[in-house]
Amino acid sequence: MLESNKEFDQIKIIDFGTSLVFDENKPLEEKLGTPYYIAPEVLAKKYGPKCDVWSCGVITYILLSGTPPFNGSSDQEIMKKVRSGQFAFSDSIWDKISAEAKDFITKLLIKDQAQRPSAEEALQHPWILNMSKQTVDHGVALNALQNLKSFRADQKLKQATFAYMASQLITKSEKEYLSKVFRALDVNNDGRLSKDEILNGWEKEVGKPISKEEVDAIYDQVDIDKSGEIDYSEFIIATINT
User: Fold this and answer.
1) Which of 39, 68, 199, 209 is the most exposed place for a label (fewest CB within 10 A)?
2) What is the DSSP letter of 2?
3) Which pTM was predicted?
C-alpha cells in the first residue's frame, strides 16, 4: 500500500493474517498464500521461512516493473508457472533497471529453497546496501537520541500510555523523521538495534561517545520485551516528544 499524499518511499506491506512465528522443529505443510506471490515449495506443502524471501522477490519484481513475474489467466496457470520457477526480464521497462536490482530479484527467486539466500543474507546484497543508505538531519537525530537516553517506562500503565501515543497520537512527520533515525542506526537492516549499533550511532550523530554503562541503562528502560535488542516499536515509543 502507498500512504496517501506520499512519495514511493512510504510503501507498506499488509495482510499478515496467516503468519506465524517459525519453529525449526515443525515443518510447514499448509498451502497458504496468493498465487502471484506463493513460493514453489509452499505449493509442494513442504517449506520453511525462505518462502517469504521468494515472496519478497516477487514483490520487488512487481514494484520495479508493474507486472508479476509469474502471470496467467487463471490461478491454475499462475501456479503452474510458479512451479516451473521460470521468469524473465524481457519487458522494455527492464532496460532502465540496474543489473544489481535484477541480480537481487534473480537470487530471491531461486527455485531451490536450499540455494536461495536467507532474509539476513538478502539484506546484505549490494543493491539493498546501496539503496538503503540514510541521510539524517543532525539536530533531529540528536533530539531523538537524547529522548532515548532519558526515557523511563518502569510501570505497566506508563508503558501502555506510551505505546498508545506512539501508535495513535504521533504526527506523520514526527514518525517519518524518527523512522529515518532508526534506519540510519540500524546498520545491518534487521529491524532491531543492537548495543553496538547504539554505541556507534550515538558517537556519529551526537558527536561524542556514550559509555557501555549508559547504553546498558538505556536498554534496561527501552527494551520492554527484554529481547536484548531495541525493535522499531520500542524505539518510536522511547524517542517521541512526550
Assistant:
1) 209
2) B
3) 0.65
